[in-house]
Amino acid sequence: MDIYNEHDTSFAMQGRWRHKWDPHYGWNCFRDTKGECDLCSVGSSHSNRLHRIVTELLGTQKSGGVRSQFPQEISMESIESMKARCKNIVIGYGQHDIAFGKTLPESFADQMRELLYKLRDHPRVFGRSVNYNPLGDEKLTCPPTDNRNPAFIDDYNNVMEQVYAEMERPWIDTRWIVEPLWDSAVDWNHLHFKVEFVHSLFIADQIGLLDVPLDKALLEWIDNEFLGKTDVTETDYKKCRKEDM
């Protein structure tokens, strides 16, 4: 099921250039319907990409999200609407606080405590770890204009893991997926699409959206992604299957 043809290029080009996704396009259950959504991802572009990939991989129209760059930006109206409509809420802030807000980890943790408190009566609220970003000029200049280096992101993830434990909320740690290829992003920001798909499937599995075991879902994705839908050769496919799995 591909519901992005109106806005995006061919499947093969989507595979290479998914970092060009415009967040205003594509299906968003929370924005485009008034009904219940199985997944509401909360955050900015990384969270937007999460629900769009879940939509694509699972062929569902019950995946969406609430887009905002900072946890203190989300309105009470959006919070109340999420409580009423979202079966699972996955929160993924951090990128903008680190890069542009220059927010210290402890201050960010306080903001997240406040948001989690506002969602305290929702039964299924999850946090996910902050994704790593490749090192570019903005991170390596002195002083850096963008603090999203692995060490600072680790500080965020460490305090956030503690906050979610303190608030008795599940924490989905995806660093074991992201770390091996942390610097592979095509646009120096968002995960490489192969990493991003595994990342999204793992989160979908953790919140109960998969109807098959995770390893089977991953193998099905590789079969669908690299045989018949792209110009990748069978030799490339076999190499990818061996290396990626």
Task: Supply the key terms.
245 residues, alpha/beta, 12 helices, 5 strands, 10% strand, globular, disordered N terminus
Residue share in β-strands: 5-15%
The proportion of residues forming helix, as a percent range, comes to 40-55%
Task: Return the average pLDDT rounded to an integer.
Answer: 83
Shape: globular
Rg (CA only): 18 Å
Quick one: how many beta strands?
5
Order of helices and strands: HHEHEHEHHEHHEHHHH
**Helix count, DSSP H or I runs of 4 or more residues:** 12
Most strands sheet: 5 strands, parallel
Low-confidence stretches: 1-17, 227-245
Strand order of the largest sheet: 2-1-3-4-5
Structural classification: alpha/beta
Through-space gap between termini: 24 Å
What can you see in these coordinates?
The radius of gyration is 18 Å and the shape is globular. Helix 3 packs across helix 10 and helix 6 runs parallel beside helix 8. The N terminus and C terminus are likely disordered. The longest helix has 17 residues. The relative contact order is 0.13. It has a five-stranded parallel sheet with strand order 2-1-3-4-5, sandwiched between helices. Strand 1, helix 3 and strand 2 form a beta-alpha-beta unit. It contains twelve helices and five strands. The protein is of the alpha/beta class and 245 residues long. It starts with 10 loop residues before the first helix and ends with a helix.
